[in-house]
Amino acid sequence: MRSPIFDQVNQEKQSAQRWTLQSDKMLRLGFGPEALAAKGAMVAYQGQFDFAHEGSGSMSNFLKKAVTNEGGQLMRVRGQGEVFFARSNSTVFTIDLEGDSLTINTSSLLAFDASLDWKITSIGNAGMLAGGLFNLTLGGHGTVGIASDGPPMILDCSVQPTFVDPQAAVCWSSTLSPGLKNDFKLGSLIGRGSGESFQLAFHGPGFVVVQPSEGVAPGAH
């Protein structure tokens, strides 16, 4: 049998490293230690694994999750072999946390080391607005895999106020506490992916990663 599909570039990349980019669209995670992954992010695995629903972590997290389908949709992965993660043909990145912290839009999350501390966070009253803006804040030492729907852009929020469509924000410095800006005039022109005229407002020492897409709005079909 002969086909370009069998070219070496498409073969699984063997690596002794725990986190490996199989390609710019797919992340390979080798086991040992346990990991937590976003439900729906796994596309394949080899070996013996156990996948279990992960609780919300606390009663406050549980209550937030009960309000919306966003946030807390995690599974705990344990076993031996390798698991592959991807999200809608998006570009995949890994970020190593070295005692610092990061807040991630749950729709951009792939997986992270279970050794990292995590909690579900919300933005102001956004749980009731704009489809539920719940995010995941990670801290400690470990690696997280994220996906960006296209080449990302890094914005420095310390220079001037920065406003981002909620579905275009991939992740940001946990030192930032984004607020909500409600601009109905602006919302009639841009930001329609959110279904509302809300933008995330960032200002302070830190960065926000923005993807060139509004993704899929919560509840959209």
TrEMBL record:
Cross-referenced Pfam families: AIM24 (PF01987)
UniProt-listed SUPFAM superfamilies: TRAP-like
InterPro entries with a match to the protein in the record: AIM24, AIM24_sf, Trp_RNA-bd_attenuator-like_dom
Protein name: AIM24 family protein
Organism this protein belongs to: Gordonia aquimaris
